[in-house]
Design brief:
The chain is 53% helix and 6% strand. With 203 residues, the protein is an alpha+beta fold. It has two domains: 75 residues, Glutaredoxin; 116 residues, Glutathione S-transferase Yfyf (Class Pi), Chain A, domain 2, CATH 1.20.1050.10.
Length: 203
């Protein structure tokens, strides 16, 4: 079993944090995204979408997509439960993880992929206007999250979950994406300080 990743990318980091929270050790194989390693025929057989991370099981099964990989480890190592326990909690965590994934991380990633000069040869066509359009959308999600965090400790409730992992990686990726964090979000800042201090955040 091993995981193919590009260490600087946010999605592989989500998996690393998830595994660290569960105390699971899996070998990682670094892929140089900037040099086209994800576009080789060999890697494309593992994931035709040419994205990381990809988990390859001992029987050769390749599982791509961050949440699919996390789901595999949640099922095989259910404690601590990072995707919830019981129908209601699982649904709420899934809901908030999707909000953070589609609303926050996707827009931050759009700003990076379409706005950073180093990505021009990978994101073709690179649309600068799209990058700029993504930035206020990501910021608006943080403002919304600040309001939500006034009522609870973590993104999806009073327990740390995969939704916090997604949100943390998105917020940290705002810096290379050149998306400014809106000022005055006291609840977000309180939450961010707490989740960033967890040992898993360094994974």
């Amino acid at each position: 079993m091993k995981i193919y990743e590009t260490r600087t990318a946010p999605n592989p980091r989500r998996v690393r944090i998830f595994l660290a929270e569960k105390g699971i050790t899996v070998p990682f194989h670094e892929m140089d995204l900037m040099k086209g390693a994800l576009r080789t025929p060999e890697f494309s057989k593992l994931n035709p979408f040419q994205r990381v991370p990809v988990l390859v099981l001992d029987d050769g099964t390749a599982i791509s997509e961050t949440m699919a990989i996390c789901r595999y480890f949640e099922e095989t190592n259910p404690q601590p439960a990072l995707m919830g326990m019981g129908a209601k909690e699982r649904a709420v965590i899934e809901m908030w993880n999707r909000h953070m994934e589609l609303g926050l991380l996707m827009n931050v990633a759009g700003a990076f992929r379409h706005g950073h000069p180093a990505m021009a040869h990978l994101e073709v066509p690179q649309i600068k206007d799209f990058a700029e359009a993504c930035k206020p959308k990501a910021q608006a999600i943080l403002v919304m999250l600040d309001n939500e965090l006034a009522t609870r400790r973590f993104v999806a409730g009073d327990s740390y979950s995969v939704a916090d992992i997604t949100a943390l990686c998105a917020v940290d990726f705002m810096r290379p994406a050149r998306v400014e964090r809106p000022p005055g979000l006291a609840n977000v800042e309180r939450w961010y300080a707490e989740v960033s201090a967890r040992p898993s955040a360094k994974a």
